[in-house]
Write a structure and sequence with these properties.
The chain is mostly helical and 145 residues long. The chain has two domains: 68 residues, no CATH class; 67 residues, no CATH class. 20% of the residues lie in helices and 3% in strands. The chain has a two-stranded antiparallel ribbon.
Length: 145
């Protein structure tokens, strides 16, 4: 990765860390990466890219990154929007799942309106009696888990 960053910065000095991240994702190859235990399958995300919870987007392709970086248009400015909070103590039913939904408009109509999601950060405080009793999943607006 550091070699790719160095090469790309020589070819396209205006690339930001976000540009390199996009280039990495868009040019990675699935190749023959295989989970022998069959736990993690390749999934198509909401924008049509395959990813895997074990291998990410696949193997980096430095040549493809450099080629794409030559014609790359820098991504727009990054905006931060706080979606909301859930501050209620909510017990998890012992025999069921608990679904919590936080709705957001992405700061619509403000100077920091979010039109594209690159990262999501959650802060969760949780108490459980045994490790492994709780599984957490985050679901994207386009249905990617």
């Amino acid at each position: 990765m550091f070699i790719c960053l160095f090469i790309d910065s020589l070819i396209s000095p205006n690339l930001t860390w976000r540009d390199v991240q996009h280039l990495s994702v868009l040019t990675s190859k699935r190749n023959s990466l295989y989970d022998s235990k069959g736990r993690f399958h390749w999934i198509m995300n909401g924008v049509g890219l395959e990813f895997n919870h074990l291998f990410g987007y696949g193997v980096l392709d430095a040549g493809a990154m450099v080629a794409l970086s030559r014609i790359w248009k820098t991504v727009p400015a990054r905006f931060h929007c706080e979606a909301g909070t859930w501050n209620k103590i909510t017990p998890i039913p012992s025999d069921k799942s608990l679904f919590l939904t936080i709705e957001t408009e992405g700061c619509k109509g403000t100077d920091t309106e979010v039109n594209y999601i690159e990262h999501v950060q959650t802060v969760i405080t949780l108490n459980a009696t045994r490790r492994g009793d709780v599984k957490l999943f985050l679901l994207s607006p386009m249905g990617t888990r």
